[in-house]
Amino acid sequence: MTVLEKLKLQIKIIQIQLQILFLRQKLTVPNLPPPTKIILHHGGGWLDFEGVNRHHKELWGFRSSLGFYVGYQYWIDRLGVISQARADNEEGAHTKGMNKLSIGVCLMGDGTKADFTIAQYNSLFILFNRLGQKYNILKSEFYGHKNFNPTICPSDRLYDWLLKYKSGDNS
What's the rounded Cα separation, in Å, for the pair 40 and 24? Predict the structure, then answer.
């Protein structure tokens, strides 16, 4: 990161902190250390990115530095399109107790009722590899939501894919 990029980031952080302080806005700030874990989720329903954004705004109301309310850092829709809702070093709202240490990745859909698309799996594979390399996160530090909280998320289908990914079986 160049000096200019660092300066721009610091200015953005100060702007957000002023909005929180003076306007009493519920915002998150991208000022955490690099993430050490990746946590996989399924949406549990058929809302698209905008639908989840509206739902999370109603639930928590915490706007990210990128302007979204989605609690995950990344969202993958049925076509495999990856949307980023939060900076990687910004607190998420996806896994109780792990939101400051991890990146949350969510696939649109309900894995308990239907499988995810090939496009989603392909995008997930690419995203996992990119984030793992970028932050030097070992595959042993990739988890499903159910590893931390009592939930069926990310569904058996997606969790099985995760275990194969971690073992190096990418078929």
Answer: 32
